[in-house]
Structure formats: C-alpha cells, structure tokens
Amino acid sequence: MKPLLLLVLLSSSFTVFANDPKNEWHNTTLSDATIKKIQESRFEYKKCVDSEIQKPEYRSADVRTGAEQVVKQCEPVLGKMRTVYAEEKVPDAIIDRHMKQLRLQTTRTVIQNLMFAAAAREAGQKK
User: For residue 29, what pLDDT band results from cuts at 50, 70 and 90?
Assistant: First the structure.
C-alpha cells in the first residue's frame, strides 16, 4: 500500500514541475528582418573569432588559455546578438541558452583550430 501511495505522490509532483510556466515552451515569432540581424551578428562574431585566431600571440600560448582569450576578445560582438533578441522581447532564459550554446560551439572550434596549428608547428619542427 505504501509503495502505491509513494508512486502516486511522485507522479503528481512531476506534473507540477511540468506545468511550471517558466519551463514551458512558447513559440516566438521573429520577423524576417530580426532573423537577418541575428544571422548578421552571428557572422560578425565568427569573423571576429577568425581574425583573433590569426594573431601571432596565440601561437605560443596554451591552447585552452588561447581559446579563452579569443572568446573573451569577441564577447562584445556577441553582445550585439543579445541586444537584437532583447529588442524582440525573447525571454532571458532562451537568450542565455542560445548564447551559451554559441559560446560552447565557438570555443570547441577554436580549441580544435589551435590544436591543429600547434600540431602542424610541432610536425614542422621535427623535420
């Protein structure tokens, strides 16, 4: 009897969390102009990251430290995308989630590129 009661109580608690309004997905309608602004700011961010990676000071730095510095240098450019989202009244949780995802993807790409460059330099020195 007790396990059945416990099961009923647990199942009802899951429905309470599922009905939490801040966790509920609401479709947002972004205009084509807004989507274009977001794509442009994302392109600017990637362009910033690419130009930062090319700087010679990252060649001698540790890969992770270099990647962190690159992402920090381009953070103001990424802030423009946040502004576009905020102007369209997109919820902060969704903005934060998208910004975090974009930062993680960019950091992974930067680390891969810096590791590749370091390996290429290492291979060139051994010959």
Answer: confident
